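B., you asked whether I could sanity-check this one before it goes into the benchmark set. Here's the sequence:
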Amino acid sequence: MPSSTFETAVLTTALYGVMLIALNMFSVVSQWVFIDSIKVRLGEVANQVAYEVASIYSMCRQSRSDLSFFKPIEIPYAISENPYAVELRKIGNVWYVVVYLQTNRAINASSPIWEEPGIDVLIGPPEDLSSFTIRRTHGSYTIKCVNILLSGTAKPVVWASRSNGETRVGLGYIEEIRG
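And here's what the prediction gave me:
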């Protein structure tokens, strides 16, 4: 005996409903996997920048005289075609390199650098210093100091400066090269 029109309509609607639910579940799961892969890549950038900041700080601490220097860092232009930002941030008593997507700050990763007590280091430029120039025999470099380093910035650097026993580290980029 053939199905009635009503039964056919109900079963067809149920089939489309099941297919729509399956499609939505696939979409949600693929978004979770995509976000997890972005977080892994953000974590890699955070670890790299944290390593560079700690390295330049220890090099600066080994000097007994006042000096300023920088180290270029190579970070990706974007992560999965998403722009991101790198920031040195204090959370509790610990300094972190925090890397997050500019479009969604909830997608982030961080890497600890050091704990605050007992470390005589200042993070970022003082309020009256937005850039400084380093003169070398082969030329001079003007470093623009920033609190947040945006991806895609040309010539990103980590820098350190020691003056009057005070060590300061931060993020920036090469603003000008003369030489």
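One thing to flag: The beta strands are 67-72, 84-91, 94-101, 108-115, 121-123, 131-136, 139-146, 148-150, 156-163, 166-178. Otherwise nothing jumped out at me.
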